[in-house]
Amino acid sequence: MIVMKDIIREGHPTLRQKAEEVKLPLSAEDQKLGEELLEYVKNSQDDELAEKYDLRPGVGIAAPQINISKRIFALHFDEHSGENLSLVAVNPKIVSHSVEKAYLSGGEGCLSVDRSVPGYVPRYARITVKGYTLTGEEFKTRLKGLPAIAFQHELDHLNGIMFYDHINPNDPFQEVENASPIDLQAETVE
Ligand code: 4LI
Ligand code: NI
To answer: Catalytic site residues (predicted)?
Structure first.
């Protein structure tokens, strides 16, 4: 199982690389990787397990964050985040997106970043995404809200991009044109 010591932090060169496409059908090893990434985000949202194994909570994690430069990530939202989505995305891509943007009003955090970097991170408000599941089936789905934000955050990891690359360095909280803020509820953030 993945724990915090397996997660590489900013400054590690792997986080700045473009990750490799995963070969299909998925090897047993790549399937296991996807399962472990999903297990991490699930465990990290379980109060007891998170405390027991000292896991920092997240809704997403990408393979490069455990120093495996492959195009695969996991997202998990349980009921109490107001969403209900759990997926492993292999070779994911955005096929279309809204003109409208969105951002988390509390800013973004990342399991590979041990400091708070304040500021708005502009993202597309709605995206249509494609990719492959762990069983090698193609999926296509539309996302909005926090899942859309998190998908873009994790996709960035596959391209060597960190969330703070998108923050305006001169004015981190500058009003984002054509954008709606997303407020994560206090109980989700706690
Ligand atoms: C406990 C149990 C305040 C601080 C507000 C916590 C279950 C930050 C916001 C969670 C922040 C869950 C989150 C992300 C932010 C902050 C990610 C807490 C987990 C809130 C998810 C990928 C950006 C995603 C809005 C440093 C690890 N997640 N908060 N950003 N939550 N969570 N991101 N921002 N300050 N990051 O993080 O998984 S997109 Cl679900
Ligand atoms: Ni991240």
So the answer is: 154
Three-class SS state of 147 = helix
CATH code of the domain in which 160 resides? 3.90.45.10
User: Could you say which ligand is closest to the alpha carbon of residue 108?
Assistant: 1
**3-state DSSP call for residue 16?**
helix
Q: What's the domain count of the chain?
A: 1
pLDDT at position 190, please? Answer: 46
Tokens of 47: 């109060």
CA-to-CA distance for 170 and 190, rounded, in angstroms? Answer: 29
Q: Is the pTM of this model over 0.85?
A: yes
59 CA to middle of ligand 2, Å?
10
The domain in which residue 39 lies consists of: 4-188
Given the CA of residue 184, which atom of ligand 1 is nearest to it? Answer: 25
Burial group, residue 182, by CB count within 10 angstroms (0-12, 13-18, 19+): middle
